Amino acid sequence: MTVSAETSTNWTSREACLDRLLEFVEMVRQGSHFAEAKIAIAKVIDQFPDDVSILHTSGVIQKLMSEFEEATGLFQKVLELHPGFYFSQIEIAAIHQEAGDKREALAWYRRAIAAEPGFPLAYIRAALLCRELGMSWDGLLLLDDMHKHLPDHIEGNLLRAEFLQYHGRRPEVAIAYKAAIDAGCRDSTVQFNYMRVMTEIGAYESVLKYAEELAPTSDELLRRHCAVFS
């Protein structure tokens, strides 16, 4: 950022300050302007000490700079002002996860899910943490809940298929794969896995019909997959 751009910022304008902070998010993510970002954060928070968006964005910048204690303090301040602000809950969860405190991270992801059950990131991260902690069943329950709120989320359906497969629930595995496909997933491996599971549960006619529907595809790998079921 140039000096002229910095000095031209109207630090009394909330919109201008938030815009400047968002620019710093990108620059700090690229590994530059750390010192300038710290100065800007101090200025903006002094001007708008109770603004949730400004506090959260400042926390994101400090997290990107690995200033985790300061970032957590800002996110906590956001939650004092707005207890259901799930973006800050997710950031606190991520900080605990990066520190290796998986159970505390999971607790924060669960808080974020309770605050906003329509946001997929918290579900997916929480389910993966459950698997790492040997709590695969809890992870599946989270993904089942995610499916109720977000039935067309491709990544959620595919991860749910993995968890269902682990627990031996093959008919539901096929349903999860089909949900991902119907939502727009065109990964040939996913389509093949759907046909494989359907074959394992004896749904041969459905497999043949699906393979025929895919026959005109230009994907050579998928054509070979379909040939297995022809």
Q: Care to describe what's here?
A:
- This protein is an all-alpha fold and 230 residues long.
- Helices cover 76% and strands 0% of the residues.
- It has 14 helices and no strands.
- Helix 6 runs antiparallel to helix 7.
- It is elongated and about 70 Å long.
- 34% of the residues are buried.
Observed structural traits:
230 residues; mainly alpha; single chain; 76% helix; disordered N terminus; 14 helices
Short description:
With 230 residues, the protein is mostly helical. The chain is built from 14 helices and no strands.
**Radius of gyration, rounded?**
23 Å
- The helix content is over 70%
Query: What is the mean pLDDT?
Result: 91
Q: Determine the strand fraction and express it as a percent band.
A: under 5%
Which blocks of ≥5 consecutive residues have pLDDT under 50? Answer: 1-5
Strand count, sense and barrel status of the largest sheet are: none
Order of helices and strands: HHHHHHHHHHHHHH
Q: Helices and strands: which structural class?
A: mainly alpha
Shape assignment: elongated
User: Given the structure, what is the number of helices?
Assistant: 14
* Secondary structure: number of strands: 0
Distance between the termini: 61 Å
Give the arrangement of secondary structure elements.
Elements: H1 3-7, H2 14-29, H3 34-47, H4 52-64, H5 68-81, H6 86-98, H7 102-115, H8 120-132, H9 136-149, H10 154-166, H11 170-182, H12 188-200, H13 204-214, H14 220-228
Helix pairs in contact: 2-3, 2-4, 3-4, 4-5, 5-6, 6-7, 7-8, 8-9, 9-10, 10-11, 11-12, 12-13, 12-14
